């Protein structure tokens, strides 16, 4: 029976021959070591990977070392407790990149980022121009009493959203006796769990941005005679 011999990788030949391997070293650019970004831009962080600054060509090509098989990362820390200059809801993320070559050499680099919240987005606002008219004798102008005429808002960051409203001072419609335009100002706010709220209170973080939308309707003064 013929015997076959599989030649070991060149890196193993170097190791067996006591020839030192060129060390594997990765580094992050200074601007990629720690940075801020909006939560909607989180995907862009994937492009801020470390560079290979030293490697042994017998242990893998540059394209191999920067590929997904050799270069991996894992999140090693995340926390909503952040310095006071950041808005409440900012997430601190720390992750570690690791590159391993074909000679089992490894190099790591740690990256930190602050993922900042964004204002909610109104996805539906009913009656942005006045379309309905209510009598001053109506029992309630609450949206639930008027057929659930609520606006809808969502968060790009995955947070819950709360909406509330205030009514501006009615403006009389010119040339229309006893008819007034009411502007209802809706405000959408991010809603956090107790742990996030407690961290923000402890650190003195300012509130995150809000969004506003205006809904309008008419009020008719039934008791007024012109």
Would you mind describing this structure in some detail?
This protein is mainly beta. It has two domains: 10-116, Immunoglobulin-like; 121-220, no CATH class. Helix content is 11%, strand content 38%. It contains four helices and 13 strands. The strands form four sheets. Strands 8, 10, 11, 12 and 13 form a five-stranded mixed β-sheet that branches. A four-stranded mixed β-sheet has the order 2-6-5-4. The mean pLDDT is 89.
Could you tell me the CATH topology label of the largest domain. Immunoglobulin-like
Strand content: 35-45%
Q: How do the SSEs run, as a string of H and E?
A: HEHEEHEEEEEEEEEHE
What would CATH call the class of the largest domain? Mainly Beta
The strand count comes to 13
Count of helical segments?
4
List keywords for this structure.
226 residues, Immunoglobulin-like, 2 domains, five-stranded mixed sheet, four-stranded mixed sheet, mainly beta, rod-shaped
Structure summary:
The chain is mainly beta and 226 residues long. The chain is built from four helices and 13 strands.
